[in-house]
Amino acid sequence: MKGNSDGALIVIDVQNDFCPGGALAVDGGDEIVPAINRISRDFPVRVFTQDWHPPGHGSFASSHPDNGPHDVIDMPYGKQVLWPDHCVQGTDGAAFHEDLHTEPADMILRKGFRPEIDSYSAFFENDQTTPTGLEGYLRSRSVTDLTLVGLATDFCVAWSALDAIKLGFKVTVLLSACRGIDLDGSLEEAIITMKDAGVVLV
Ligand code: VGL
Ligand code: ZN
């Protein structure tokens, strides 16, 4: 059968650790679940991502004895914000929110699994060059347009949206189905950067 698709929904990191009660809780992170459930089947292609770190991951403040959460350090690939331990592979915190309907997912993409490098974006790790494979998957399914939802607006959603624009996709971010971390104004900055890059924000 010819996969005659063009639009994909990309659901970013709707995992317990990013929801209230989680290790890196985003305010209202769980509030977006019903909206995502309502729209997911409207898209011909649906990809869900999971932040998926090994214990002792390089983005964890606990891996850097001289630093604390939210410190910014220099890694070989550039600046890196340090986070509390979160989304450790196989833990309950790394699981999808229990009310999120994951049956519609065509593909579940895990990212951030290399110990020494973080991956906010669903397309490239934080060195901005190591691919996750998502671009190839979407192209092989004839996808040209992406709608992004999920957590967090100012990190994984924004980095994914900006990479998608660079790769030539048409990108919409559905802000009502996203929530942000907002570290030192990072939410407003991300929104301006996405808008300037040509992301459609609705
Ligand atoms: C994320 C910080 C660290 C996200 C993931 O999903 O936005 N943020 N890891
Ligand atoms: Zn992470």
Helix and strand topology:
Elements: E1 7-12, H1 33-39, E2 45-51, E3 72-75, E4 78-81, E5 107-111, H2 134-140, E6 145-151, H3 153-166, E7 170-179, H4 186-197, E8 200-201
Helix pairs in contact: 3-4
Pyrazine-2-carboxylic acid (VGL) binds next to helix 3.
Could you name the CATH class? Alpha Beta
The N- and C-terminal alpha carbons lie at a distance of 33 Å
Chain-averaged pLDDT: 97
Cofactors, ions and other ligands in the entry: pyrazine-2-carboxylic acid, zinc ion
CATH architecture: 3-Layer(aba) Sandwich
- How many beta-strand runs? 8
CATH topology: Rossmann fold
Domain Isochorismatase-like: 8-200
Pathway: Cofactor biosynthesis; nicotinate biosynthesis; nicotinate from nicotinamide: step 1/1
Enzyme class: hydrolase
Keywords: Hydrolase, Metal-binding, Pyridine nucleotide biosynthesis
Structure description:
- α3 (153-166) packs parallel to α4 (186-197).
- Helix content is 20%, strand content 22%.
- The chain has 202 residues and is of the alpha/beta class.
- The protein has helices spanning 33-39, 134-140, 153-166, 186-197; strands at 7-12, 45-51, 72-75, 78-81, 107-111, 145-151, 170-179, 200-201.
- The protein has four helices and eight strands, in the order βαββββαβαβαβ.
- β6 (145-151), α3 and β7 form a beta-alpha-beta unit.
- It has a single domain (7-55, 86-201), classed as Isochorismatase-like (Rossmann fold, 3-Layer(aba) Sandwich), CATH 3.40.50.850.
- 42% of the residues are buried.
- The strands form two sheets. Strands 5-2-1-6-7-8 form a six-stranded parallel beta sheet. Strands 3-4 form a two-stranded antiparallel ribbon.
- The structure holds pyrazine-2-carboxylic acid and zinc ion.
- Zinc ion binds at residues 51, 53, 59, 86-87, 112.
- Pathway: Cofactor biosynthesis; nicotinate biosynthesis; nicotinate from nicotinamide: step 1/1.
- It comes from Maritimibacter fusiformis.
- GO terms for molecular function: metal ion binding; nicotinamidase activity.
- This is Nicotinamidase.
- Belongs to the isochorismatase family.
